[in-house]
Amino acid sequence: xxxxxxxxxxxxxxxxxxxxxxxxxxxxxxxxxxxxxxxxxxxxxxxxxxxxxxxxxxxxxxxxxxxxxxxxxxxxxxxxxxxxxxxxxxxxxxxxxxxxxxxxxxxxxxxxxxxxxxxxxxxxxxxxxxxxxxxxxxxxxxxxxxxxxxxxxxxxxxxxxxxxxxxxxxxxxxxxxxxxxxxxxxxxxxxxxxxxxxxxxxxxxxxxxxxxxxxxxxxxxxxxxxxxxxxxxxxxxxxxxxxxxxxxxxxxxxxxxxxxxxxxxxxxxxxxxxxxxxxxxxxxxxxxxxxxxxxxxxxxxxxxxxxxxxxxxxxxxxxxxxxxxxxxxxxxxxxxxxxxxxxxxxxxxxxxxxxxxxxxxxxxxxxxxxxxxxx
Length: 375
Fold this sequence. Notes:
Blueprint: H1 2-6, H2 16-22, H3 33-55, E1 57-59, E2 65-67, E3 86-89, E4 98-102, H4 107-116, E5 124-132, E6 145-154, H5 162-186, E7 203-206, H6 207-213, H7 219-229, E8 232-236, E9 261-264, E10 267-270, E11 273-280, E12 285-294, H8 298-308, H9 317-323, E13 330-336, H10 337-344, H11 360-368
Parallel strand pairs: 1-5, 7-8
Antiparallel strand pairs: 2-4, 3-4, 5-6, 6-13, 8-11, 9-10, 11-12, 12-13
């Protein structure tokens, strides 16, 4: 049970001796550094254009820093294990200062932005979001620098159901599959028997079903096991306590709705959210691409905050906006840019498609394995 609890929050491997073991020993990049840059921007343009087309979104600007008092920064988990970078702006000789934070994600801001940009039901926004997550363990697919296509779409009350969630996920998967085809047309060397393409369809599975199949395994081991059978999955219901008393993974209580009861194939469950995971044939590991969901309404927000012991959040402007029905009902998520590009371009490390800081021990380890991170 302790292993399960330790696996609920905090991504990454957590030990560089373990990282050394999992980095591939037979790696050769299929694209040089110049080709990689050209390919990643081609993929990036394709995904942004087609994500907006499929989901009826428009690109908008997104903040890098927010006012602490706004309550719109993303705490990522509900156990307080990952906190944002915070700093004091001594504006006007401290007469009108601001306590600011670097965003960890734009999840809450986007819902407010739907109102700010006067989005009607069926319309939404997409952002080229950049963030800092200082509490990550830095390994092959976790970085302190985060880039995401963060998107949000206004919906109606009758769209708050599993089928609407799934239909949206299928559209996102269509875009990711299309991007894979697009870059392989531009760079045929990316087509390789060694690294099979993504499947045409995702498999939808509830977190409880995975637990039933692998009851003694911690979360990441369960995900690894199920991906051997289904190489691309959408795990539904992340955040609700499962039959072993633990959630599949910790989730913040104030954006995704993981408490609402649902029913499928005669089985009752909970949650209107989930993650897209795939099997990465380069790293030979589970690979998360996206986290998304139908967002909380006034009822589920209060219930989730109560379960999380965070009812004091209800006094914050963002939470008041939901309680008072001032913010639109919505669905939204984040698609990891570097994560997706790493996968599509058959890279072994995030540092091959993004420029950020890495510890010397990791850079030296990568060099020994023919993995060259960008400086």
